[in-house]
Design brief:
Strand order of the largest sheet: 8-9-10-11-12-7-13
Distance between the termini: 27 Å
Shape: elongated
CATH architecture of the largest domain: 3-Layer(aba) Sandwich
Strand content: 15-25%
Helix content: 25-40%
Number of strands: 14
Oligomer: single chain
Number of helices: 11
Largest sheet: 7 strands, mixed
Number of domains: 2
CATH superfamily of the largest domain: Gcn5-related N-acetyltransferase (GNAT)
Radius of gyration: 20 Å
Length: 298
């Protein structure tokens, strides 16, 4: 008899519905299904289901490595973590955890006590925003964003925002390619372009929602997002063509209006100073720190 309850497999497009059924109470971007699927090779992502709970294991050597805290409704933590420990022991994996929220860390500390140690990389934190802040841009905190929109409208005249569909996905890809071409050569940018290409190819299967900004009928900016759940949306990709670098406040505002959610997750800054400054400029309502942990059961 095989006592290993957890059978980890690479995420497939067919897993979308079952994954989403476990995400009613979460906010972190690493659980958004497009990230699980599109980054599955980068992080050697594996997922497993037990009862109505989702487990993840990142087997690669990247930023994410190890097991994650199980998610789902009515989780029996002793039962769930027993099976994680069992899987690690049977397969010779170290009992490492990643992408832990502070609440996850507290629960693990209660279970493992002095046998667990934690670390926190600021670049892994998610930036969360009230959707109303990003759509209304009210008050002095968003004065610069409103000015940026005004300058853009004076410089470029008529613009329009339209939902992405099968007829304009080629325009979205052209924006992404133009954005990459304008950057310094970097393997990370090329990887991101491949991910956007796959996101557009499997947009329906991934549950992605897209929007495009046009200026005088020319494609200027794109945004691709998904719903983590009814309350939280995740902005996966947001790009402007080189001639329209000032379009970010408009594409962000219009996309969030279309998503009709309560919270927006704009993901991590991965310790890139310019990206961190940009995310802070949108005035997050909360920064969701994510920790890693090592458990020594010896």
């Amino acid at each position: 008899m095989n006592d290993d309850i957890l059978t980890f497999c690479t995420p497939e497009l067919s897993d979308l519905t079952r994954v989403r059924e476990t995400l009613f109470h979460v906010e972190q971007s690493d659980l958004a299904f497009p990230n699980l699927y599109l980054l599955r090779h980068k992080y050697d992502t594996r997922i497993a289901f037990y009862r109505n709970w989702l487990f993840r294991y990142y087997a690669g050597n990247g930023r994410l490595r190890g097991y994650t805290f199980p998610v789902g409704d009515n989780i029996d933590m002793n039962d769930a973590l027993f099976h994680v420990e069992q899987h690690a022991g049977l397969h010779g994996n170290p009992l490492h955890f990643c992408a832990l929220t502070e609440e996850n860390a507290r629960q693990l500390k209660e279970r493992y006590g002095d046998k667990i140690s934690f670390s926190d990389d600021p670049g892994d934190a998610d930036y969360l925003y009230r959707a109303s802040d990003l759509t209304e841009l009210a008050g002095t905190a968003y004065h610069k964003k409103r000015n940026q929109i005004s300058r853009f409208e004076r410089a470029h005249g008529n613009w329009s925002f339209v939902p992405m569909d099968d007829g304009n996905s080629a325009d979205a890809l052209s924006i992404a390619r133009a954005w990459v071409a304008a950057q310094e050569p970097d393997a990370g940018h090329e990887h991101e372009l491949r991910a956007i290409e796959n996101a557009l190819r499997y947009r329906h299967e991934l549950g992605l929602i897209g929007g495009l900004l046009y200026v005088e009928n020319r494609p200027a900016a794109l945004s691709l997002a998904s719903r983590i759940n009814d309350r939280v949306a995740d902005i996966h990709y947001e790009k402007c063509a080189p001639d329209y670098r000032d379009a970010y406040p408009i594409i962000c505002r219009e996309m969030v209006r279309m998503m009709n959610c309560e919270l927006v997750n704009r993901e991590e800054d991965i310790n890139i100073p310019g990206l961190r400054q940009a995310k802070l400029s949108w005035k997050p309502c909360r920064i969701l720190h994510k920790l890693t942990a090592i458990v020594d059961l010896c």
